[in-house]
Amino acid sequence: xxxxxxxxxxxxxxxxxxxxxxxxxxxxxxxxxxxxxxxxxxxxxxxxxxxxxxxxxxxxxxxxxxxxxxxxxxxxxxxxxxxxxxxxxxxxxxxxxxxxxxxxxxxxxxxxxxxxxxxxxxxxxxxxxxxxxxxxxxxxxxxxxxxxxxxxxxxxxxxxxxxxxxxxxxxxxxxxxxxxxxxxxxxxxxxxxxxxxxxxxxxxxxxxxxxxxxxxxxxxxxxxxxxxxxxxxxxxxxxxxxxxxxxxxxxxxxxxxxxxxxxxxxxxxxxxxxxxxxxxxxxxxxxxxxxxxxxxxxxxxxxxxxxxxxxxxxxxxxxxxxxxxxxxxxxxxxxxxxxxxxxxxxxxxxxxxxxxxxxxxxxxxxxxxxxxxxxxxxxxxxxxxxxxxxxxxxxxxxxxxxxxxxxxxxxxxxxxxxxxxxxxxxxxxxxxxxxxxxxxxxxxxxxxxxxxxxxxxxxxxxxxxxxxxxxxxxxxxxxxxxxxxxxxxxxxxxxxxxxxxxxxxxxxxxxxxxxxxxxxxxxxxxxxxxxxxxxxxxxxxxxxxxxxxxxxxxxxxxxxxxxxxxxxxxxxxxxxxxxxxxxxxxxxxxxxxxxxxxxxxxxxxxxxxxxxxxxxxxxxxxxxxxxxxxxxxxxxxxxxxxxxxxxxxxxxxxxxxxxxxxxxxxxxxxxxxxxxxxxxxxxxxxxxxxxxxxxxxxxxxxxxxxxxxxxxxxxxxxxxxxxxxxxxxxxxxxxxxxxxxxxxxxxxxxxxxxxxxxxxxxxxxxxxxxxxxxxxxxxxxxxxxxxxxxxxxxxxx
Amino acid sequence: xxxxxxxxxxxxxxxxxxxxxxxxxxxxxxxxxxxxxxxxxxxxxxxxxxxxxxxxxxxxxxxxxxxxxxxxxxxxxxxxxxxxxxxxxxxxxxxxxxxxxxxxxxxxxxxxxxxxxxxxxxxxxxxxxxxxxxxxxxxxxxxxxxxxxxxxxxxxxxxxxxxxxxxxxxxxxxx
Amino acid sequence: xxxxxxxxxxxxxxxxxxxxxxxxxxxxxxxxxxxxxxxxxxxxxxxxxxxxxxxxxxxxxxxxxxxxxxxxxxxxxxxxxxxxxxxxxxxxxxxxxxxxxxxxxxxxxxxxxxxxxxxxxxxxxxxxxxxxxxxxxxxxxxxxxxxxxxxxxxxxxxxxxxxxxxxxxxxxxxxxxxxxxxxxxxxxxxxxxxxxxxxxxxxxxxxxxxxxxxxxxxxxxxxxxxxxxxxxxxxxxxxxxxxxxxxxxxxxxxxxxxxxxxxxxxxxxxxxxxxxxxxxxxxxxxxx
Lengths: 797, 175, 288
Prior knowledge:
CATH superfamily of the largest domain in chain B: [2Fe-2S]-binding domain
Radius of gyration of chain B: 17 Å
Strand order of the largest sheet of chain C: 4-5-10-6-7
Shape of chain C: globular
Largest sheet of chain B: 5 strands, mixed
CATH topology of the largest domain in chain B: DNA polymerase, domain 1
Largest interface: A-B, 61 and 68 residues
CATH class of the largest domain in chain B: Mainly Alpha
Structural class of chain B: alpha+beta
Strand content of chain C: 25-35%
Distance between the termini of chain B: 46 Å
Distance between the termini of chain C: 48 Å
Structural class of chain C: alpha+beta
CATH topology of the largest domain in chain C: Uridine Diphospho-n-acetylenolpyruvylglucosamine Reductase, domain 3
Radius of gyration of chain C: 19 Å
CATH class of the largest domain in chain C: Alpha Beta
Number of helices of chain C: 12
Order of helices and strands of chain C: EHEHEEEHHHHHHEEHEEEEEEEHHH
Oligomer: heterotrimer
Largest sheet of chain C: 5 strands, antiparallel
């Protein structure tokens, strides 16, 4: 890096609440969703799926489907098996992990309700849907595997009989002092079990894929509603054998992902395989209820957590045993999701010993994988829940207990018991601000009044002081975690002859507003107008390098890469300017896009003029390449650690079990903020999804392994009347690990909010003897918890 | 096949359609008006909301034959002479969209809401949009945008509207 | 998802519709507002050979008075019901409960008659019409007949309508505030969009601080909407005050057989019925 890379950048754009450039086509209906795409001769693919959780396939006869009007082709799994490899798992977390074969379409056995068994291709989507009815399949039912603990029993039926076990892996971590020794000298040991229900991510845009082949040249263009066009290209090339350089992947406008589109899906491979077989373009679009079966699910963990502490409330050690539901197969990062949480259980707290074990378990359910937060919401929930339980046990205010244990602002950088080095943070400041905005003391007073009067509607206050690790990730750390790829991100900047700017990013936004934020970053460094910057992304032809968008990585890695690339452009332009102005580089000031000679401000060149001079190349410094374009690949030096304090007040109707969120206040520290409007929007959306886990959502299976909550009418995605108005605020402790001082924000709201809500519910009901309510805290469950607590109290009297 | 005549965003189309053809597929696949997306198959998400003869409807839950002789307005017909509808402007200015997939339906539902209740409270906006799901925004900026478009400023709401039973306007309307 | 193919008829009069139904072979579905039928067709839970669209029959729409009865055309939309001045004056409970049905777009298309003929015990209006002592008028090849709401709902998604009959109107005895009537519909559900776990439709007539008559319909407390008869009887003569109302409401679930699903066990539904009946009756009794 040159000295110029550390130049101070005047922030005209960064920090501004710029309305987004992306919006124009989105608010006018001129969007380019994958399902909107059509090409001449486009055929429609539909997929017949297993109606059973687990069965042997005895016979698939697609011939009757081929006779249906409008049908072009129909295939069984066996018809397509040749030339289709296993879907990839890029994160085999242990050396001895059980890694079953995962054909994109089942051949001999189906292992979850929704596993593909046949494909039909027709001239329109109606004909394709009709033809599915004609496919004949005979199954021999096999026993479903549904319960995580039952699945590990010696005599349990097996999801993958050839593997001899449902235990996918065991991943241990033990740091600091010996936990058992620490536990032996603790005054208090609390052990709790928490369960994370299965969640369905529910991006509003259903998945879709379009494959357009150029048969003569063997080239394929694949459009997919994906978060990961770059990774998808590599993986599909491996799965289908289409050479990587013959496959172009485009993520057009993508309508949300939340992890569900961080995947290499069977349907993407199937569409490519079918288009190759037929030499014709093919489209597949899932219906919502189909997606509930076929798009990966999230969470689904059982946590046994134990905390050892002194009587004064000083944490000594923490022990966590996880059972994590893999579902039927290992998809792209399935096994790694709980491991992302492994490092977060100690959270913001200091302690001497930490012991963690995760056991991955196969079940005959839809595979699990990343869902907003991916591992960290689970960890944060467990530690923040048990901190409240410990506070109750010790008769301490839950905020006070946290104060006694958290890392203080003057202790950063701080290496946690789990081995992460938190670069920055100020938990005291965020907490103080949140308490003030929440009116904590007044609410506590009201709560006490209601408790004393025996009010049927109780008030509860929930606290969540979270941090999380995001901004995936330093490549060497990923290596140590046995993740197959690196964690860098690419950016390049092209100065066009007319002075306009193209920023090419390897991130792949699907609602996050990268076009706007990256424009703000580039505009400031280059000193050009915000409007003069275009951001190109999501197409492996125009943006050939990238690691895509997930894990709150885009800004801290990709946005920082844009910053670095822009700095390089300025450094190159400075050489040209110095040459043209006949000054030394050191004598040039650069401000607001203008190079000027120190002491003679009339001697100046704008960066746009430099761009044109470079284009003409008539008068460049000797030996200089005729370009000021620049590229930067950034491998982050650390994770990003946003943190904050969330406070939730609920009213619980003890007669019906109904929970109403009365107020929600959060103060997040996401470091420096590029666009406060976008950041606040990310927090809002994150809160909504975290609250939804606490109160509403659950993928429910019956005892045969059928998904009961199989449509949007049964799986309760909250609407506007179901969520409160949020009060959001910030503290700003710049990250030390990137030049922008930014931290990830995409997942923070989700990670923080779930425990805040459940803590509030339990806090409301604790005087009645309730110590937990399983999620989602549906009215019936709240009512049952109250009833059980009352019965237990009566029994002890 | 059934012959239908439908006016969409000011243009009249005549087509032979299968009776089972959903209005939303008629718009998207036959007319190429892909501004109206499909987000579910159970009439829950509202992404496909359009105006049918002056009322918001979910176009996935109307047959094209049912729209015979009717006028449909979609998100693509809202701007006049390139000028955005006030709701389109407000959604942009208030950051009421992220991925934008729900936005066409959300705007069409909000337009209907404001026609019936030009100056709603925040709670009334939340209730009026109960049939439209958004997974990105947490709804807060959507509510602010609708209030802003109604000329209520960017007034932050007065509460959560979580208790439907406490919704006053509905009660008053019913009494 | 996409419906399977069907034939389509769009009669323009009730007589023509009845003839079409009578002549139909195979499975036939009547398409009213379509807000329940179309999702069922899209999920391919039904495969009708013929769909009879009654959306273009003007005589099926609108609200009128007929002596001491209010008459609502079967194809009157929820939205029209909510805003109709006659409904608000003489069947306020129906207007209040209809505002809780679905969402605004659904209420623009969905109809009173469609909702009743679909006879989903989890939907709000069957219990309301039951509480209002409504009558349903069916037109068939042999002419018209009137079916009391009590006899109309026969089982889960089943009604007393014959396959060749069409529900044409709903007749409700007028219940006006001036005659001492108060009402309330108490719907308990998990999110705004979701079906009622339990709903209570309460009509209460008061005279001088005492309840003289009550009619209580329960949503989702069995395979059909039901009346809370024991509570109704216990309320007669009771003071319109919390304690006596609470005592009467203890019997609200007597004789019900609620179902079990993800959101609620039968036992929880019975508990809710008692709590919500108390609340609904008190709200109705306190209505100005």
